[in-house]
Amino acid sequence: MIMLDSIRKAFGARPVLDGVSLALEPGRISALVGPNGSGKTTLIKCILGLARPDAGRLLLDGTPADADGTYRARIGYAPQAPHFPANLAVGEVFAMLRALRPGATADEALLEEFSLRAEWETPVGTLSGGWRQKVSLAAAWLFKPDVLILDEPTAGLDPIAAGLLKHAIRSARAEGRTVLITSHILSELEELADDVAFLTDGRLRFAGSVQALLAETGTRRLEPAIAALLRGLKVANGGAR
Amino acid sequence: MRRLLALASLIAALTPSASLAAQELVVGAGAPFQTITAAVAAAKPGSTIRVRSGIYREPTIVIRIAGIRLVGEGWPVLDGEGAREIVNIRADDVQVQGFELRNTGVAHMEDRAALRVIEASRCTIADNRFRQTLFAVYLQRAHDCTIRNNDIIGAGGGESNNGNGVHLWHSTGVRVIGNSIRGQRDGIYFEFSRGAVAEGNRSEGNARYGLHFMFSDSCTYTGNAFVANGAGVAVMYSKGIRMERNEFRDAVGSAAYALLLKEITDGALIENKFLNSSTGLYLEGASRLEIRGNEFRGNGWAVRLMADALDNRFIGNQFVSNAFDVATNSRTVRSSFDGNWWDAYRGYDIDRDGRGDVPFRPVRFFALVVEKHPEALLMLRSPVTSVLDAAERVFPVLTPPLADERPLMRPPQ
Amino acid sequence: MNAATLTVPAPRAASPLGLVLRAGVRDLARNRWLLAYGIALAGIAELLFVFGGAGQQVLLSLLNATLLLVPLVALVFGTMHVYASREFIELLLSQPLPRRAIFIGLYLGLTLPLAAAFVLGVGIPLLLHGTLSAAAPSALLALAVVGVLLTAIFAAMAMAIALGSDDRLKGMSLSLGAWFLFTIGYDGAVLAVVSMFGDWPLEKPLLLLMLGNPVDLARVLVLTGIDTAALLGYTGALFRRLFGGALGPSVALTALALWTVLPVSIARRRFLRRDF
């Protein structure tokens, strides 16, 4: 289980995360949603140690994350717009990742399903965005991580690949792994997500199960539910003014 | 051909007694004379004294009789035993040939010379070796003498405890030819000596100057080599000097000049080479010199023109691989450059007459800075110096308006 | 399982640093711009040989080319490269690797290919024309060492600049500004100082000023190795006093090496502290 405890992060004077506390449960798929600039990516980067929180703690199964980042061995991460050294071949990228974790067993199921071996010798720089995304996702899955963090994972994927991915995500849940997804496509999240965390202006406005969200907003789908949350915020803000 | 003829007539002139069925005296072990001193005492005008090989330690041999020929056979050694001069010539037409003169010792109160010629004319000092001598050959008020093919190796001391190889003082018409001089203070030194000729000498590794002369007008220097002397060559206070086909090289040091000319007027420097020296040619108070067909290669400064150098004409010289081609300490330069070849020239020749169509300005802005502030030399080859040079070339405000209006497109043959 | 190990070969035991470095070197070894850099250097050297005349003159021209080009390429290419590697750096950071190791791997992965391009680009024509190496071996060695050290210094500076600002335009401007400062601006200021304070004894201050600019140190180091008469006049005396003997070049070399430490530690500090 991943616990975020009162994470604060400001870029200069601008607060991006303003005391975010969140628990990501194993065996569940959590969706992180929020408008552009709400702090989703920063939150993910804080989990990964790419960004350093100004305050707050990150706990993995109750243990604080170490500064050297060895805890990242448990996390598979697929970034929003993945890039690799342009002149490395696909095979070389995987060889390098593999070499970085000697002793870890490799799970190449997704790699196989995406037929990446067909592009094994292709320099990454010449791949299309969709193919790069496949490389990135296969890399995230490569070591059977306890935690999968997927930032806009379906962006650029063709429908077949998107289907394969969704299947892989569900399998991960079935295996009791923790999955965190962000996406703009709420219908997609609706299919997958068990829990929803809704972030605006660096604050967590809702964290709980999808059912709880639907019940609270009196809607039957995620999209109107989020819309209702946003509306509620505006009303609240308007009232405050 | 002309030189051969001159040489033949010279030999004829120097052997006046040959027709007089000259007396011949022989010195050596088992010979009539055991010492040269005794033979000299017995000699008559025109006598030939033949000295066999051996080492002779005698008081200074003083020759007062005209026309004596002192000839060594098998390199007899005349040893000064570190205490005295070895031969003094005080009569005309004396010839000394084929000896090794050595070991005069160092004297601080006198200019001790291995062979001194005093107020005598037409002497010939030829084919001798000088070793470990303070001064080797010293001419004072000696006229029309010839010093030829001697091999002089000094003791190699510094400037203070060393003398000169060939030293002329108030001596006119002397010919210094084909000698090799090293390890002295000055290789060749002329003072108050008019009309001398130095030809085909090699002066190398001397402590101060390879050639040094002052107040010696109308002298000619041809085909000599001056190599790696402490301060190069210095020529001062003389008129009508002609220097042709000499090689001045490897004069290295903060006060070293391949050729320093100071207060020199009406001379000519023709087809000499100035190579690998800190300063190639340094002109101070030098005027009306024709400087033609010389090669300046690999020097720090090829030419340094001081403000008081007037009306010197540089024609058809070539400047190659010098850090600075021309430097000056003044905004006004009153010497001219015409039709020289500069390796730094980047002009073009549209009318194809072999001359560049745009003038070349040989004084770099950076050279001017260095002339004023020598420490700035630490910035040598910094890109900023090229930038400044380029800027100055576009807007010349500081460099003197000195230009070769018609630089050569190809190096002269 | 068997097939898996075949497709992704089991690694030889290697440090994370080495792996990052190897990936970086492999990537840049196929970089077009880097190739162009090496070829341009080789072309310049070759042209100098064909048209430049005497060996020493070639060496001096090569020195000038090195002093201008190496910092420029290291700065501009290095800055570009860091910006272009941004996502790759994030990928590496998401792996269980300490940032220290990633930094050193990235730095060497940038510096070594650049240095190799320099050494090969300049070295191959020199070897082909053989004569020069016999003429001034010490100067040649000095040129090689200086080229590599300048690469190390300015590549680190590029990393420090690129890691200091996410604004690529700003980063590029800073890089070009740094290049101008170190190759021309600084020396211009030194000359200005010389002409303003010309009446004072300037040797020692000038020496200190030389220590303040790696490009000057590099220039002086190579010039002392060239036995040209240009440097043996007043300069000779000056250079010898300042840098002469066995001590001088080692002082200059040490200073140059120390110069590498400064930008590297700034870049490292920024890399360790910043958010990606």
Topology:
The complex is a heterotrimer of chains A (241), B (413) and C (276).
Chain A: E1 2-11, E2 14-24, E3 29-33, H1 40-48, E4 55-60, E5 63-64, E6 75-78, H2 90-100, H3 109-113, H4 129-141, E7 147-151, H5 159-174, E8 178-182, H6 186-192, E9 195-200, E10 203-209, H7 210-217, H8 222-240
Helix pairs in contact in A: 7-8
Chain B: H1 2-14, E1 24-27, H2 36-42, E2 48-51, E3 55-56, E4 61-63, E5 69-72, E6 77-79, E7 87-89, E8 95-97, E9 100-102, E10 113-118, E11 124-126, E12 129-131, E13 135-140, E14 146-148, E15 151-153, E16 166-169, E17 175-177, E18 180-182, E19 188-191, E20 197-199, E21 202-204, E22 209-214, E23 220-222, E24 225-227, E25 232-239, E26 242-244, E27 247-249, E28 257-265, E29 268-270, E30 273-275, E31 279-284, E32 290-292, E33 295-297, E34 301-305, E35 310-315, E36 318-320, E37 324-328, E38 334-338, E39 341-342, H3 365-372, H4 383-394
Parallel strand pairs in B: 1-2, 2-5, 3-6, 4-7, 5-8, 6-9, 7-10, 8-11, 9-12, 10-13, 11-14, 12-15, 13-16, 14-17, 15-18, 16-19, 17-20, 18-21, 19-22, 20-23, 21-24, 22-25, 23-26, 24-27, 25-28, 26-29, 27-30, 28-31, 29-32, 30-33, 31-34, 32-35, 33-36, 34-37, 35-38, 36-39
Chain C: H1 2-7, H2 16-29, H3 32-51, H4 55-84, H5 86-93, H6 99-128, H7 131-135, H8 137-164, H9 168-196, H10 203-211, H11 214-225, H12 234-243, H13 247-273
